[in-house]
Design brief:
single chain, about 525 residues, alpha+beta, about 15% strand
Length: about 525
Amino acid sequence: MEEYVFGANILENLTTGMYQDSRVIYREYIQNACDQIDKAYDMGLLRDEEGCIDIWFDAENRTVSIVDNATGIPSVDFERTLANIANSDKRLGEDKGFRGIGRLCGLAYCKELIFTSKAAGEDVISIMHCDAAKMRELIIANERGEKHTASEVLHSIYKFEYPHTDNIDAHSFKVELVGINEENTDLLDFAQIKEYLSFVAPVPYQNTFIFRSEIYKYAEELNYHIDEYTIRLEGEQIFKKYKTNFKTSKGDDEVFNLAFKKIYDSHQNLLAWLWIGVSHFKAVISKDCQMRGLRLRKENIQIGDDDALQKLFKEDRGHHYFIGEVFAVSKNLIPNSQRDYFNENPTRLEFERELRRYFNRELYKIYYEGSAINSAYSKIDSSEKKETELQEKKRRGDFVNDSHYESALADVERAKESARKAADDIEKKKQKAASDLESDSAAVISQVISRLEKERKQRESTSHPKSSEKKKKSPESRRVDKLSSYSRNEKKLISKIFGIILTATDDKTAEMIIKKIEDGLQ
């Protein structure tokens, strides 16, 4: 039987061409380390919560080291396990990684890739050197006509050594990227890598996120274990950076509760579950908020970027009203080789169908109604503010003449009418939500209305009581009365000028001109 040849270019596809974001090397190597930590627990090499992954930077030598204290690889299996490609012993549906190609990703971003392993009970350390710079040279030569097979390239860049050690009981595995490429300096950026890992890696929620216990409780009720590992960057432990406060395009907002949802297939098998933060849903969450969007996770490792699920919303903006996570549960939801989404199969199609239905029915109602409710309350607040401002201007004698006052009073009456309609609309939404007991969106909308009502009552109780003074149709004094040094006829003339200014331009400009005239006359 003829042996088929894999050309050297296949290595470029599996390294440089596999990932668009260099930071994925952390996700790939952490994923492998997590699988081995799980095995170390099963083997009794580690006790609960002893497993850890440490990432270290050496800026001077442009080196990244990723070290775990898991099983290591026995020396007899070391070369076979690491040198072969896409021939992993990992099991689909049980391990986080399973294709056996992720270990190659570092070759694209450094001069040399080194794997160092120590298995418990052995007196040797297993080391594999991969000359990444030479690999790239051979791939370029292959493209220019100097043909090489993938096997020839790998044999020429691999070097193995097995030095002796007296530390028989030690067990660990280390990946080193030596001589990080100049164009990949971001791999040495502490702040950037910390931010990336805070949402991508399988780490615990930070303890300041007060709703984390509710997430754990819900997962436990589903008999679902959220995989979490101790991952440290330069000695600092990484946590998921969820918090309750954030900014929107219409000001600050906050998460004051959580809502949960189970996603089933047509046979009532659990495909996924999710949580969303219940906020005021004022507006789209600001772009600079790292939390925004519903992040897709499998084995608690993020799939794709923060917008992996945005395509399932009928409006792009819909995805950006929410904070939350979708945990894929089904073993048939299989991450693709880039881990930016799932392989296409019937389970993925059902997953998408059910999520799309939930997003575009329930979540759409939540952010659409939430935005409308906030807008209605804004009209009520605006009306109250205008009423207060009218009374204050009247008290200060800011009105130029009766016409000026009547115009302001008419504006207040229009605002009151708008507020009355807004209040009626809120009440209708409140009653509708209360009567729709089966709807996920109705329960959230009720919470939003209740929260806004509570906050308004708190504000009213701390504000000054409204004046009980009876409203008068016209002010008791005129603005020109403040110009005490002028005669009655002069004040009439000035008042007439002020009136002309008011009719000739908008209120803001008129106020500015009148104020300057007043300052000049005093």
